[in-house]
Amino acid sequence: MASYDLSGKNALVTGSTSGIGKATAMMLADNGARVVVAGRDKERGMAVVDAIRSRGGEAEFIPADLHDAASAKELAHRAEETVGPIDILVNNAGIAAFGPTEDFPEETFDAIMATDVKAPFYLVSELAPAMAARGSGAVVNVSSVAGSIALANSAVYGASKSALNQLTRNWAAEYGRRGVRVNAVSPGPVRTPMSAEAGESVNELVEQTPAGYMAAPEQIAAAITYLASDESSYTQGTILDVDGGRRAV
């Protein structure tokens, strides 16, 4: 894996108690960032913090159940109180549920949109203005190939990630000239608890992917770390496909 100099940077990674978020928190810390690990499960969160500290990194855990504007704003404030100004925000927390449109529960629809769209929106609304005032910062949104291609039984999840892609572009236009870079990664099939819940649809996606296998969380974390670093200083408003080539075919 490439190495980047993130020393002196404070990073907030949502949904970082497992999967892509955990791998990202650890990789950012390995590259020198002080990381706020945020998620619903305190035991898993502290395990990530302990793993980071055992490797010589700096990390703190803040419990967070992101489901509305208030919970997003509270996390932003607590993170800044804990480690200081946030330089890197990784919007990774998300909910996925799959099923036919005609049977899709309204409460599940609302939960997906609240966590996958509303929470990132209000985290950015709280943290990006301060980044802009300092003249630097990076926001990386974790999207999905489902936001760019049509997948059966994925209408709501795909719509939430498509919305996040558009927010990424809009925020780049809004904050880019003030020094805040906003980008997204768009993973394909990744070995995470969420992909396990998707069942056979994930296996079908793997079969359609030129790479021919399911990615490890660290492969997605590597792309996120690049976009969070100054090495991607001229990259703005990009949806970076890290999908094994699925969107290309």
From TrEMBL:
InterPro entries, per the entry: KR_dom (IPR057326), NAD(P)-bd_dom_sf (IPR036291), Sc_DH/Rdtase_CS (IPR020904), SDR (IPR050259), SDR_fam (IPR002347)
Domain called Ketoreductase: residue spans: 9-193
Pfam families linked to this entry: adh_short_C2 (PF13561)
Keywords, ordered alphabetically: Oxidoreductase
Signal peptide (UniProt feature, chain positions): none
Gene Ontology MF annotations: oxidoreductase activity
Gene Ontology BP annotations: monocarboxylic acid metabolic process
Family to which the UniProt record says this protein belongs: Belongs to the short-chain dehydrogenases/reductases (SDR) family.
Protein name from the UniProt record: Short-chain dehydrogenase
Source species: Acrocarpospora phusangensis
